């Protein structure tokens, strides 16, 4: 056996005799197992629940009786966002963003029913998941197990014995790295099993699961290198422990938590009330379909009369009220989209600010990488909002077209005074069955890999810096041997 493996094996024997190392390792393994089981079960339960509610919403919409088409526009419809397979590993922002949207005419509603809004404030700290355990808790265990790998030997005076036996500083460091890397591999094992299970049971992409494993292996490898480096640079085991705990608190707790506050200050978002007021102001500016003297709709009416070569809206081959509804929805939907895209742009700016803090915290980098590969990042939520809005517009315009084609202008105007007209404007309910069901299309693997690339690049930079610091520690250790 090589000297490096011998030193690593000796450290493993010492760790096996340490009550602290035993307790820390067993507790984290148990917690990781619980996190994997609960996260996967929560993902499966949430998906089953959302699928059941979606089927119920589709059934309720299709089961409506004969109605006026515009009644169905205001009756609305619900759509639910299914969770990706790897949400059982990293739930990402799902708890914060909401999972369902009520779709109706003339409005663009926000998503509702996020878990954080319905639970205690503790949920804001982080959900118990394999990703959370690896990002936050696994480095802490590596610190408690490895802080004294070199510093404690320096205090006991056993480092010089290694020099007597012909061991160089580089060999000592590699032996310690191998010893602590073995512990990191054990800590990574439950997450690997969870990813394997999701790949088999939930048809998660194997490539994404492998890339997640590599990313977290690099993150734990960074902490292994950092722990050994700090232990080599400090004079006492106590000093190494305090330095590493401070480093862990700043990089995994403080920086990620203050990142959102910094981003909000640098790229503030308007409140929902401010946005609604601004939208209503712009709606009155671009055109009011209920105002017969509105310039836009007056020009719209004149254009229709000229196109069909008639002098009155009663003589149009289509129901003028339905055509006005279609034009009004086109204008409002375009306005909603502009405001939504402006909101997305501000959110991207906030994300850039937070991701910029990855240069101060590798936890931010690995979190960005993890959510992107799992498909649970904010961009995945934006995809759902865009697809839900496109679906809403399709439904509403389809119903408005039915009003224009299947309901006469005369009956439409007399439906509140003439019972027969009121009966005739209620069209056959088979039309509700023609509305397609909502199908969410998640991001492809290539798109998710591109989204994860910045986090992977920053993590690689951290690894290079850690390797450089390890080289300095090797020279310092060489003087001590």
General description of the model:
Helix content is about 75%, strand content about 0%. The chain is mainly α and about 475 residues long. The chain has one domain (about 5-480). The chain has a two-stranded antiparallel sheet with strand order 1-2. The two termini are about 25 Å apart. This is DUF3526 domain-containing protein. It comes from Novosphingobium aerophilum. Keywords: Membrane, Transmembrane, Transmembrane helix. Pfam families: DUF3526.
Short summary of the structure?
Keywords: Membrane, Transmembrane, Transmembrane helix. This protein is 73% helix and 2% strand. With 481 residues, the protein is an all-alpha fold.
Helix and strand topology:
Layout: H1 3-17, H2 19-62, H3 69-75, E1 77-80, H4 94-97, E2 100-103, H5 130-146, H6 151-156, H7 159-164, H8 169-201, H9 206-233, H10 237-266, H11 272-286, H12 295-308, H13 320-356, H14 362-374, H15 378-406, H16 409-414, H17 419-424, H18 430-433, H19 445-480
Antiparallel strand pairs: 1-2
Key structural traits:
mainly alpha, single chain, 481 residues
The total count of helices amounts to 19
How many strands appear in the DSSP assignment?
2
Cα-to-Cα separation, first versus last residue: 23 Å
| Structural class based on helices, strands and sheet pairing | mainly alpha
pLDDT under 50 segments (min length 5)? 120-124
> Given the C-alpha coordinates, what overall shape results?
elongated
Reported for the largest beta sheet, the result is:
2 strands, antiparallel
How much helix, percentage-wise, in residues?
A: over 70%
What is the string of SSEs from the N terminus onward? HHHEHEHHHHHHHHHHHHHHH
Strand content: under 5%
Q: Give the spatial strand order of the biggest sheet.
A: 1-2
Radius of gyration: 31 Å
User: What is the count of distinct domains?
Assistant: 1
Query: Can you give the mean pLDDT?
Result: 89
